[in-house]
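Sample intake sheet
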Amino acid sequence: MLTEGSLWVQRRAGCLPQPSLHPQPIARQAEPVSHRIPFKIGQPKKQIVPKTVERDFEREYGKLQQLEEQTKRLQKDLKKSTDADLAMSKSAVKISLDLLSNPLCEQDQDFLNMVTALDTAMKRMDAFNQEKVNQIQKTVIEPLKKFGSVFPSLNMAVKRREQALQDYRRLQAKVEKYEEKEKTGPVLAKLHQAREELRPVRDDFEAKNKQLLDEMPRFYNSRLDYFQPSFESLIRAQVVYYSEMHKIFGDLTQQLDQPGHTDEQRERENEARLSELRALSIVADD
């Protein structure tokens, strides 16, 4: 272990360096390169797109994105509705056919007449329902599908505008980089070249940006004129269908109603018959 005295002896012998009477200042570490660069390439200082313009663009494009989603949802809901309508009328026809094949119809002429009237009504309902669905498919669902097919092209135009904006920012930053350098011959040459590269890219972005800002509101506002005939057709199809259903079931009611019988009387008669059936030994509880 070295003591303070032994250290002094070694310094005197020249084994250890003598402490300086004038200590040298500590050298500062070089500042990282990234800290000396005022900005990164691709992030220009200049605001190349005014914030108000960017807000207008985002607002208009957001409205179209919402319209696209609503159009898809409406088309899907209408398809589900028409499929359910067809399934309902087809099931009603099948029920009436099953009743016609029931052995009761062979034994009771009145019951056969009633079921035959029901079968006729169900087939008429199914025919009108098919006509309604065909009209909705042709005048509402197909126009919705065609309208929705426009959005992929619109979204692609927005992507091209975004790519043009990125190229514009990158080249603008490149120009700014050379503008801040010392104006030597090579730097001036590179600055000139960078400005030449920037000009067509800037013009391309401004053209794409202007076109979208002009046409996106026009496209959004056109939805009213486009969809109004379709929605009117949808309403007319429903009105015609339910008007025919009113006639069909009105005729059926007249054929089935027994004079002097109310719903309460029919319910009491059914309960009385059910009680008679329950009294039979084969259905009695053990």
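Comment: Confidence is low (pLDDT under 50) at residues 1-41. The chain has nine helices and no strands.
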